[in-house]
Design brief:
elongated, Rossmann fold, 12 helices, 2 domains, six-stranded parallel beta sheet, 34% helix, seven-stranded mixed beta sheet, binds MU-OXO-diiron, alpha/beta, Metallo-beta-lactamase, Chain A
C-alpha cells in the first residue's frame, strides 16, 4: 500500500467504503470514506480511526508509514463509531498511547467501550506539543455530537474538523482539485442538509472560532480534503448555517390514484406563474435525504398526501418526521391533498408544518378527482397568495 501524504509528515490513513448506500437513513449513493490522519513528529499522533470493518485497511495504510506501536497519541475527535470503532483494537496495538478527547468525548468513549485506556481530556485552547508541531484543540459541540472536537496544527496551517465540512464520497482522489466542483458542492450540501442542518447556531460559532486561524487545508473525516476551495466551502457553510434561502419551492408528495399528484402539478404552476423555480418530488421515487438536499436552500416547502385510513401515506409521514428532526428554519409551508370521505390528511400535514415553525399558506384540499377547472382555481389562488408576499 503506498503512502498518501496530505502534508509533509502528515498522512491519510483512512479507509474507502465503496458500497455503503445507507448511512443511518441517509442515502449515500457515492459511498463514503472514513478519514484518519497520522502525524509523524517527535511524537506520533493518530487522529481518529475508522469504522470497525475497515480496521485492516486502515492498519495497512498506517504500516506503510510507521509501526502502529509507535503511536503516542490517538486523538478521538468524536465518539460516533464510524470514527471510534477501531479504538479498542488500536489501543491494544499501541498500549503506551494516550487518547486525547473532549470532556464529552471522555464520557462517550467510556460508555461505548468500557475501557481502561490512558485518557487526556482537553478543552478549547488547550495545546499539546509533539515536536516541531503543536496540536491545538477546539471544541465544536453538536457538529455533530456534544463531544465533537477539531484539531488545528498551525505549523502546517491544517484544520482537522472531523465531521464538519465532510461529504460522503468514496474516492481514491483525496483533494478538492481532483474532483469536479459540482460533485463536491452537491455532496457537501447533501451532507449538511442531512447531518448538520439542526445545528446552525453551533456551526456559526465554530466558523467564528476558526475564522481567525491561518488555514490552507481542511481535512474532514469523510470524503475529500479541501485546499483549493476553502473559501467556497466556508461561504456555503456560512449561508447554510444561517438558513438563508432562495426563491425556490420544493413540492414533496405521494399519491394513490394521482389526484394529489394533479394538485402537486397545479401548485407547481402557481410558482411558475410567479417565476419561482419549483421542484416536484414524488416520495415513491425520491429518497427523503435527496428531498432534504433540495430543501436546504428552498424558501417554500409544500407537502401533499391523500387521506389514507384517516391519516397520511406512510412515505409522507416518514418524510415529515425526518424533516422535523433536521429542523429547517425561516420557511413558508403549504399543505395539500385529495380525499374521498374523511379528509384528515391536509390537517395533519398542516399541523406538522406549523410544528416546524413554518409560516403557512392556506391549505389546498380537493375531494375525489379534481377537475380541470378546480386545478386551474388552485393554481390561481396559490399564485395570488405567493404574489402577495409569499
Ligand atoms: Fe462521521 Fe458523526 O460521525
Amino acid at each position: 500500500m503506498k503512502k498518501t501524504a496530505v502534508k509533509s509528515g502528515i498522512y491519510w490513513v483512512g479507509a474507502i467504503d465503496w458500497n455503503i448506500r445507507n448511512f443511518h437513513g441517509y442515502s449515500t449513493n457515492r459511498g463514503t470514506t472514513y478519514n484518519s490522519y497520522l502525524v509523524e513528529d517527535q511524537k506520533t499522533v493518530l487522529v481518529d480511526t475508522v469504522k470497525r470493518p475497515f480496521l485492516e485497511e486502515m492498519l495497512e495504510r498506517v504500516r506503510a508509514v510507521t509501526d502502529i506501536s509507535k503511536v503516542d497519541y490517538v486523538v478521538s475527535s468524536h465518539a460516533e463509531m464510524d470514527h471510534s470503532g477501531c479504538l479498542p483494537e488500536i489501543m491494544k496495538l499501541c498500549p503506551r498511547a494516550t487518547v486525547i478527547t473532549s470532556p464529552n468525548g471522555e464520557k462517550s468513549l467510556k460508555k461505548h467501550y468500557s475501557h481502561d485506556w490512558k485518557v487526556r481530556v482537553v478543552n478549547s485552547g488547550d495545546k499539546v506539543i509533539i515536536g516541531k508541531r503543536t496540536l491545538n484543540f477546539l471544541l465544536i459541540p453538536m457538529v455533530h455530537w456534544p463531544d465533537s472536537m477539531a484539531t488545528y496544527i498551525p505549523e502546517d496551517k491544517l484544520l482537522l474538523p472531523n465531521d464538519a465540512f465532510g461529504q460522503h464520497i468514496a474516492s481514491v482522489e483525496r483533494f478538492d482539485d481532483q474532483v469536479e466542483w459540482e460533485v463536491l458542492r452537491s455532496e457537501a450540501a447533501k451532507y449538511y442538509a442531512n447531518i448538520v442542518l439542526p445545528y446552525g447556531a453551533q456551526v456559526a460559532k465554530a466558523l467564528e472560532a476558526v475564522s481567525g486561524l491561518d488555514i490552507d487545508m481542511i481535512a474532514p473525516s469523510h470524503g475529500i480534503i479541501w485546499k483549493e476551495r476553502i473559501s467556497e466551502i466556508a461561504e456555503l457553510y456560512t449561508k447554510w448555517s444561517s438558513n438563508t434561502t432562495l426563491q425556490k419551492a420544493v413540492i414533496v408528495y405521494d399519491t394513490m390514484w394521482n389526484s394529489t399528484g394533479k394538485i402537486a402539478e397545479a401548485v407547481r404552476r402557481a410558482f411558475d406563474e410567479n417565476s419561482i423555480k419549483a421542484l416536484p418530488m414524488n416520495l415513491s421515487f425520491t429518497h427523503i435525504s435527496d428531498v432534504m438536499t433540495e430543501l436546504l436552500d428552498a424558501k417554500y416547502i409544500c407537502v401533499g398526501s391523500p387521506t389514507l385510513n384517516n391519516g397520511i401515506l406512510p412515505t409522507v409521514a416518514s418524510f415529515l418526521a425526518y424533516m422535523k428532526g433536521l429542523a429547517p428554519r425561516n420557511r413558508k409551508g403549504l399543505s395539500f391533498g385529495s380525499y374521498g370521505w374523511g379528509g384528515q390528511s391536509v390537517g395533519i400535514i398542516d399541523d406538522e408544518l406549523k410544528g416546524c415553525g413554518f409560516d403557512m399558506f392556506n391549505s389546498v384540499k380537493e375531494r375525489w378527482v379534481p377537475s380541470r377547472e378546480e386545478l386551474c382555481d388552485i393554481t390561481e389562488r396559490v399564485a395570488e397568495e405567493i404574489s402577495k408576499g409569499g
